[in-house]
Amino acid sequence: MAENTWLVVGLGNPGAQYAGNRHNVGQMVADELATRLGAAFKSHKTPSRIAEGFVRPGGPKLVLAKPNSYMNTSGGPVSALAKFYGVPVERLIVVHDELDIPFDTVRLKRGGGHGGHNGLRDIQKAMDSPDFTRVRVGIGRPPGRQDPADFVLKDFAGPERQTLPNLLADAADAVEAIVEDGLVAAQQRFHAPA
């Protein structure tokens, strides 16, 4: 079943009060992908909401997931989904917010540290491996002396909201490029100077 199945997890916090937060950009990308697949999120026996579909007829299958847990405890739901669908860590893609990348920038990588991102830390621990692919969606650093923890839990600012649909589309394109063409080809496309 898992031969050409990819698990794509959009990180964020559950609940309407968090839906527009910078920290939830991963879930916003998952919503964009679900729209493209013509799929709707529904409850699942693992503690997540999932949507499933194919990138193209006969192409890779995507299992899109939004854990029902808070960001910092994402590992349990992700591990449970990987087991349920028989998806190895090499076909796990985690989409998350990244403070160290400028807003409106997408970067891709496999493995590495968690950089203080508690959602990634928990997934690494639960999967017993850091070797999953990350689609890092740049949200930039907070202005002035604002605490990063407060910054990520705020909604995108007015000018950012105008650009946000393009950023979500770019990140969704990056996920599709990874599953269709491989990480290296996707990196060459998305990391190229504009």
From TrEMBL:
Please indicate which superkingdom the organism of origin belongs to.
Bacteria
Major location category of this protein: cytoplasm
Question: What is any one GO biological process for this UniProt entry?
Answer: rescue of stalled ribosome
Catalytic residues, per the record, are: H23 (proton acceptor)
* Annotated Gene Ontology cellular component terms: cytoplasm
Gene3D superfamilies registered for this protein in UniProt: Peptidyl-tRNA hydrolase (3.40.50.1470)
Site (described: Stabilizes the basic form of H active site to accept a proton): D97
Keywords recorded for this protein, A-Z? Cytoplasm, Hydrolase, RNA-binding, tRNA-binding
The subcellular location is: Cytoplasm
Any one Gene Ontology molecular-function term assigned to this protein's record: tRNA binding
- Binding-site residues, tRNA: Y18, Y70, N72, N118
Catalysed reaction(s) here are: an N-acyl-L-alpha-aminoacyl-tRNA + H2O = an N-acyl-L-amino acid + a tRNA + H(+)
Which EC numbers characterise this protein's activity in its record? Answer: 3.1.1.29
Q: Which residues form a coiled coil?
A: none
Site, Discriminates between blocked and unblocked aminoacyl-tRNA: residue positions: N13
InterPro entries the UniProt entry points to? Pept_tRNA_hydro, Pept_tRNA_hydro_CS, Pept_tRNA_hydro_sf
- Which positions carry the signal peptide feature in this UniProt record? none
Q: How does it assemble?
A: Monomer.
Function as written in the Swiss-Prot or TrEMBL entry = Hydrolyzes ribosome-free peptidyl-tRNAs (with 1 or more amino acids incorporated), which drop off the ribosome during protein synthesis, or as a result of ribosome stalling. Catalyzes the release of premature peptidyl moieties from peptidyl-tRNA molecules trapped in stalled 50S ribosomal subunits, and thus maintains levels of free tRNAs and 50S ribosomes.
- Similarity-based family: Belongs to the PTH family.
Q: What is this protein called?
A: Peptidyl-tRNA hydrolase
Q: From which source organism is this entry? A: Agromyces sp. G08B096
- What does UniProt list as this organism's lineage? Bacteria, Bacillati, Actinomycetota, Actinomycetes, Micrococcales
